[in-house]
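Here's what a typical entry looks like (WD repeat domain phosphoinositide-interacting protein 4):
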Amino acid sequence: MTQQPLQGVNSLRFNQDQSCFCCAMETGVRIYSVEPLMEKGHLDHEQVGSMGLVEMLHRSNLLALVGSGISPKFFEISVLIWDDAREGKDSKDKLVLEFTFTKPVLAVPMRHDKIVIVLRNRLYVYSFPDNPRKLFEFDTRDNPKGLCDLCPSLEKELLVFPGHRCGSLQLVDLASTKPGTSSAPFTISAHQSDVACVSLNQLGTVVASPSQKGTLIGLFDTQSKEKLVELRRGTDPATLYCINFSHDSSFLCDSSDKGTVHIFGLKDTRLNCHSVLALVGKVGPMIGRYVDFQWSLASFTVPAESTCISAFRRNTSKKRQLCNCHLRSWNLPQICLHSRWKLQQRGFRPVP
């Protein structure tokens, strides 16, 4: 089957369990499954115009669309819900809901019963998809990337986003917070600088977040708010594009503008590399904290000029696999499946 080139990709997003990903393009929308890796559907430019953002609800027929780009059909201040299973030849027949605001929409995380719409300084939570109504509204610190994550688990309705204080994360248990009421926020002081990314594991028990510097990733218990571990990516500043947990929370991956994807062990942290000075019983205060860091157990490279997102595939075999989607400088998405990781030298790492 001959396919047209996917030119002008504006964003790439995995769905809630990383089994699919969506491409928002100048020419419309493309949706792919990860396993097997194949196109599952597309919306042409004639149907939806140029797209800035597309989010998929699990593997269902519902898509959240936000227009942007050179020739948009929809405004960037609106979220349109597209029901691909609905009958009708015209695109208007497929559009079942619309949420409109006064400022551009930056992210639209969804779960089976709620949708969150993220603006630069505020986010809104609605019941979804039947008879949507506004449940909550939260002011945030300036959030130009639209950072936010929503736990997909049926057992936990946890929402996390940047807090008002620099480097803090705010956690909201939507199940225990009554709509229309204010409650004391649960705040984690994660970093001294602004938060660069935020990601919850599938069960909503752990939240991971790197700072804007991009050298460290902190993992925190969402119940106790205590720091569980601090992972070191490197010593040079980096812009992180994404961080994701494996489905069983055994591993964590991240990608950055350095062109390197790192994998860390979480359940068995002995797999990670440590500083050689960890063998020393006593160290000076200048390097004591450095010794405590854990480095990635494995890494591999993608083109440094690419914007890359990475996630773990759900696999019934014992082989761990990653799906990486990255945008080349000529705006063509490249999809790579990695089943073998380039291991770092096992054991201890010298202090640079």
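Residues 299 and 342 are 5 Å apart (CA to CA).

More examples are in the samples folder.
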